[in-house]
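Worked example 3. Consider a protein that binds adenosine-5'-triphosphate.
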Amino acid sequence: AADKIDTIVSLSKRRGFVYPCSEIYGGQRAAWDYGPLGVELKENIKRQWWRTMVTSRDDIVGLDSSVILAREVWEASGHVEAFVDPLTECTSCHKRYRADHLEEAYEAKRGRLPENGLADITCPNCGNKGTFTEPKMFNGLLQTFLGPTQDESGRAFLRPETAQGIFVNYKAVEQTSRKKPPFGIAQTGKSFRNEITPGNFIFRTREFEQMEMEFFVKPGEDEQWQEYWMQQRWDWYVGLGLNPDNMRFFEHPKEKLSHYSKRTVDIEYRFNFGGSEFSELEGIANRTDYDLRTHSEKSGTDLSYFDQDANERWFPYVIEPAAGLNRAMLAFLLDAYFEDEAPNAKGKLEKRTVLRLDPRLAPVKAAILPLSRNADLSPKARSLAADLRQYWNCDFDDAGAIGRRYRRQDEIGTPFCITVDFDTLEDDAVTVRSRDTMQQERVSLDQVVGYLAARLPG
Ligand code: ATP
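Given these inputs, the predicted complex is written out as structure tokens:
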């Protein structure tokens, strides 16, 4: 299972999903860049999220707030004080860890917490036991300076979550969109955390993308809404092809909840990183009225809601499904990866790698393949590709044996390959091959758009 991650890392690099960041300079540790296929896959996931969460609903609107907000926002939200992780260092090999991660890995392996805390734990790097320093709290906010002087007056924070941009715009959005609780505000975008131990490929990085939605509800209705959103979010992953056998809910123990949370339940995926089988994909938190209340107190702007029907004023409670785009991408890739067999040109079965990505997520929707590089076939195929590109991201490939070209498309999850052959010159039809069934169908050229449209949901 751990080698499945390695397989995905190497496929990602080889085919242009994900490259190591700044590799020509030796690389920037635990940072990644998204190549031509990666950016398509990421955009497709984001688009599906936006459709499901925003445009298909009457009760959620979108927002795109700044990455750098007023410093007071992070003081009020509690991040300056409480966005901290316990940092420990191995005194033998000087590797740094998050103390809670070490304990969690111990617990996952042995089914119980270490009795003497860190003293019972062996350093995963050098193998020495009991060599950890007393944990020190370390703030995870990434800092920068605005303006010409690099002093306290210019200190600013890059957002560690998109949520605060939503809370500080709450009143403006409520008034301009004329929504009343229960309603939500959704936002996608980059967030930054000075993670102590980034790693596991794109799972944990210091710069990442979130897809968050804050759903504002009447106090007392929060618990049902949390259940509702847990189910909705679970269904979203399953609907896009994630195998539910590889997913589970994880209920955060009360004593470990974040400073703002009444209840947090994660959707976890079986990433199978060394040490832990399941890891967090998305968190669904009941943030109570903590954020709107503290921002009201600290800013002096009343963010409570006047409920005309009941003639009373209250602070909405907030249910927050917070997803990580990069983690979702990794889960979809791992889950879609299969090795099976396909017949080669001579009809002999050969191993093939296939990404069974949902067609809505597949980076390339169709590949147009002239049977051979030929003065008659290529122009016909190019003109078909140009037509199809008006609707979908398509590949054109006329290099090498047709079987090898099918394999290349299977490996990146392209749902349809369209072959232009010598019969095409006679019958104005092409062969459409499906990635999953490997069935081939003859489709007339003027029907190809309709054929694909019926099989490629938006
Ligand atoms: P973890 O416990 O793994 O550090 P978290 O509980 O701090 O995660 P949240 O604050 O709930 O994470 O953030 C919401 C989502 O944002 C996470 O479920 C995850 O998908 C994503 N996320 C958070 N931190 C990172 C990171 N460093 N790299 C990539 N994605 C992240």
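Take a moment to read the result before moving on. The radius of gyration is 25 Å. The mean pLDDT is 95.
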